[in-house]
Structures are given as structure tokens and as C-alpha cells.
Amino acid sequence: MISYSFPVFLLTKILNFMRKTVVIFLVLFGTLLGVSLNAQNQPPQEIGLRLTGLDNFDLIYKREKNANQFYRHRLGLISFGVTGKDDTSVSEFGLGYAFGIEKRKSVNGKLNFVHGFEPRIASQYSSMDGNTIGWDLMVGVGYVLGFQYDFSDKFYVGLETVPALTYARELDGPTKGTYELNLGFNSSAVALVLAHRF
Q1: In the chain, N or C terminus with fewer CB closer than 10 Å?
Q2: In the chain, where the domains are located
Q3: Tens-of-pLDDT digits for all 198 residues of the chain?
Q4: How wide is the angle at C-alpha 94 spanned by C-alphas 4 and 163, nearest 5°?
């Protein structure tokens, strides 16, 4: 039988994790975006969804730096879930953030080639019955490669992939200290980008 204190304990664990990592991501994201008080002088901006399959998506925000150069921010929920049976449950929560400068080169009037470096950071926390079974941190740098097709001045669709060098380390859990270094190009991770300009 599951006790009524379990959800409170789980919520406490999730809030502690959020305090340690999620707040850092959000503060960093907000700081990098900046807020301009003069709306008339704001450079063009874009906001949209980046989909890799039907169950993996990121929010993406871009702001023009110079002609054909954009600051790019991606924020994604890596995982969130609770699985249980009888009086045992496993919960997990993870967030990822990437920032880079995207360069665009016109192929023709509506089609652009996009590319640029994109550093990233992600963290994931897992627990079973309130005990940590994993807390991972991943950092890396990728290179965006893709195409973008402008349907109008306000909307475009893009296809992109991000080959990357990543380093991941288990910070807590039974395999604490385990690390992984990867260099890869994953053609199955081609993403569809749907974005609105304003």
C-alpha cells in the first residue's frame, strides 16, 4: 500500500532538484535573452518548436545578431515521469539547454543553408522510492547543419541535425563517477523546426 507521504516526499525531491539545476537553466536562459525596453529598435526574432520524432521536442528562440546571423537558444524537457507498482515507484526529471550562433546562407530566394556552433548542457535526475538512483550531467558542443524554407515573411520550416562532442558524468547514484565521452553524427536525429518570425 502506498502511503500518503510518498507524493510529498517525491515533490520535495523534485523541488530540490529543480532548485539545483532548473533554476540555473532558467536564470541563464533569461539573462542571455535580455529584455529591451525600446520595442521599436528590436532586431527580428523567431520562436518555434524543434521536433525530433513525436515524443522529443524543444522550444527554440532566435534573435538576429547581424545580417544572416542569429543567437539561438534551445530549451528542452529531456524526461519527466513517474512509474509505479504497488508500493515501489521510480521518478525522473531532466532538462537541457543549448545556445549558439546560427549563420544563414541563401541557396535561392526562399531556401537557406543554416550552420553554426551550439554548446549545450543537460541534467537528469532519477529516484526510486525517494532514494537517488541517478543524477547525470552532460556538457557538449555541437555544430548545427540544416536547411530552412521560408513559406512567408512570418513562418518557416527547417530540417537540421547537430553532430556533437559530449561528455556525461554520473554525479550521484550506484554508478557515481561513471563518465562517457561521445563524438557522433546521428542521422536518425534529424529535427523538424517550425518557427514564427516577429
Answers
A1: N
A2: 5-34+44-197
A3: 444 444 555 556 665 665 555 556 555 555 555 544 444 568 899 999 999 877 788 999 999 999 999 999 999 977 788 888 888 888 888 999 999 999 999 999 899 999 999 999 999 998 888 788 889 999 999 999 999 999 999 999 999 999 999 999 999 888 888 999 999 876 668 999 999 999
A4: 165
Residue 162: exposure state from Cβ atoms within 10 A (0-12, 13-18, ≥19): buried
Rounded Cα distance, 14 and 10, in Å: 6
3-state secondary structure of 198: coil
Alpha helix stretches (DSSP H) within the chain: 5-17, 23-33
Residues 194 and 186: their CA atoms lie apart, in Å, by: 21
The CATH number assigned to the domain with range 5-34+44-197 reads: 2.40.160.20
**Residues near 62 by Cβ (< 8 Å), separated by ≥ 6?**
45, 46, 47, 70, 71, 72, 73, 102, 195
Q: In angstroms, rounded to a whole number, what is the distance separating the alpha carbons of residues 49 and 70?
A: 16
16 burial type by CB count under 10 A (0-12 exposed, 13-18 middle, 19+ buried): exposed
Distance, in Å, from the CA atom of 141 to the CA atom of 122, rounded to the nearest integer, reads: 12
